Amino acid sequence: MVILITGASHTGKTLLAQRMLEQYSVPYFSLDHLKMGLIRSGRTSLTPLDDDALTHELWPIVREMVKTVIENRQHLMVEGGYIPYDWRRDFEEEYLRAIRFICLAFTDRYIDTHFAEIQRHACAIESRLDDAGCTIASLKADNRACREGFQAAGEQVVLIDDDYEQTVGALLYEGIESSPA
User: Fold this and answer.
1) C-beta neighbour count of 44 within 10 angstroms
2) How far is CA 52 from the centre of its chain?
3) What is the pLDDT of residues 90-137, one digit of tens each?
4) Under a CB-based contact definition with an 8 Å cutoff, are residues 39 and 47 in contact?
5) Would you tell me how many other CB atoms lie within 10 Å of the CB of residue 138?
6) Is 134 exposed, middle or buried (0-12, 13-18, 19+ CB in 10 A)?
7) Sheet architecture: strand order including 28-30
């Protein structure tokens, strides 16, 4: 089973992956780590701000890693924001049966009522070097774009609208072997 965890900025993708790792002992792979490895090694001229170009650069590598994990009947979580909206087109049905997809997004209401809390937890698992660009407006725009992009591609998006812990807890309860969407 491969679990793809994606979503908008600050929604707790890494936190969910960490909690799933602790509960189910399934390792996770961070797309941010791959991104920074490519950038720091000089293997790309892209910067951490080149989101669309980074998706284009990272996804072919990640896609083939996912296929390899499935072919070897292994478990892995892949976590990060660099999964394209139309990711399913890259997999035949035999692969799709072994993939669980989770996309997290905040509603505008949640951002309005919990912005200070979102900022406080921005570094819950990994350190963010510069989070000055995170504003209510930018967070809403990013979450809206993520939600609309994945929904337009036919994906279900887990909307965080009220109780964050309850929403994440429900995802943990579903486990790693739940039927992929």
Assistant:
1) 16
2) 15
3) 999 999 999 999 999 999 999 999 998 888 766 555 555 566 678 899
4) yes
5) 13
6) middle
7) 28-30, 76-79, 2-7, 99-106, 158-160
Q: Which two tokens stand for residue 170?
A: 């429900």
Q: Give pTM, 2 decimals.
A: 0.90
The residue type of 181 is A
List the structure tokens of 49.
Answer: 């701000």
pLDDT one-digit tens code per residue, 45-88: 998 888 889 999 999 999 999 999 999 999 999 999 999 999 99
Read off the tokens for 56.
Answer: 């284009």
- Measured between alpha carbons, how far is 145 from 105 in angstroms, rounded to an integer? 10
Listed in order, strand segments (DSSP E) in the chain are 2-7, 28-30, 76-79, 99-106, 158-160
